[in-house]
Amino acid sequence: MRGNRAYPEAVKSTVIALVQQRYHDFGPTLIAEKLAEKHDIHLSYETVRQWLREAGIWKDRRQRRKRVHQPRYRRESLGELIQIDGSHHRWFEDRGPKCTLLVYIDDATGRLMELRFTDTESTFDYFHSTRRYLDQHGKPVAFYSDKHQDAAGSSREGDAARGHRHDGTG
Fold first, then answer.
1. For the segment 72-130, what is each residue's pLDDT rounded down to a tens digit?
2. Is residue 45 domain-shared with residue 115, that is, in the same domain?
3. Number of domains the chain contains
4. Is residue 91 part of a domain?
5. Domain membership of residue 103 as a residue range
6. Which position has the higher pLDDT, 25 or 157?
7. Are residues 142 and 88 in the same domain?
8. How many Å apart are CA 60 and CA 73, to the nearest integer?
9. 14: helix, coil or strand?
10. In sequence order, what are the beta bridge partners of 106?
11. Residue 147's pLDDT is what?
12. Is 149 inside any structural domain?
C-alpha cells in the first residue's frame, strides 16, 4: 500500500532507467539536479537516494568497500631512494614573496640531501636541483616524487621570468 505522497511507479522506473543510461556515475544530489534541469522531474535528493539504494545502484559510504593501501616500507641503504617534493609557501613571512622549497630526502635515513628555494615548482627547477644533488652525492638507485606534483608541466610564469618561451621559439 502506498502513502498519499508516494510517486507513481512509472516515475520511479523512468528515473532508474535514466540513471542507468546517463547518470550512472553521479551521486544522488547531482542526479536530482539533472532530473529537474533536463527532464523536468522534480525529486528530493533523499527520494533519489532511497530509490537508488532499493535498485542496488547506490551504496552509503559505510557500505562501500574501503580501499586498502599497501604500506611502503623504508629502504635499507643511503642513496637507495631519494624522495623529491616541492612546497609553495610564504617561507619568509612578509619579508619576501611566496616561493617554493624543493626538498630531496633520503628514504632510508630521513636525511635532507638537497634544499633549494625557487620562484616556482617547475621542471626546469627540478632539473637544476637534481643536477646539484648528483654533483654532491652521486646517482641514487631511484627518485620518488608524489603523484600530485605540479612539475609535470613547467610553470609559465616562472619560465617567462627566466626568458623561456612556450611557443617553440625560445
1. 889 999 999 999 999 999 999 889 899 999 999 999 999 999 999 999 899 999 999 99
2. no
3. 2
4. yes
5. 81-161
6. 25
7. yes
8. 33
9. helix
10. 82
11. 59
12. yes
Which region, left, alpha or beta, applies to residue 92 given φ > 0 means left and ψ of -120 to 50 means alpha? alpha
The answer as to whether 62 is a domain residue is no
Q: Is residue 166 part of a domain?
A: no
In angstroms, the Cα distances linking 117 to 23, 36, 91, 103, 137 are: 46, 51, 9, 9, 19
| Grid cell locating 109 | 635515513
Task: Report the C-alpha gap between 53 and 32 in whole angstroms.
Answer: 14
Rg of the Cα trace of the chain?
Answer: 27
Residue that is written with C-alpha cell 620518488 in the block: 144
Cell 644533488 sits at which residue? 133
Task: Give the global pTM.
Answer: 0.49
Could you tell me if 87 and 101 are in contact, meaning their C-beta atoms sit under 8 angstroms apart?
Answer: yes
Nearest-angstrom CA–CA distance, 134 and 118: 18
CA distance 15 to 21: 10
Tell me, yes or no, whether 48 and 97 share the same domain: no
Q: What does the alpha-carbon distance between residue 15 and residue 112 come to, in Å, rounded to a whole number? A: 57
Instruction: Report the alpha-carbon angle 166-168-170, nearest 5.
Output: 80
Q: Which residues in the chain belong to E strands, given as ranges?
A: 81-89, 99-106, 112-118, 142-145
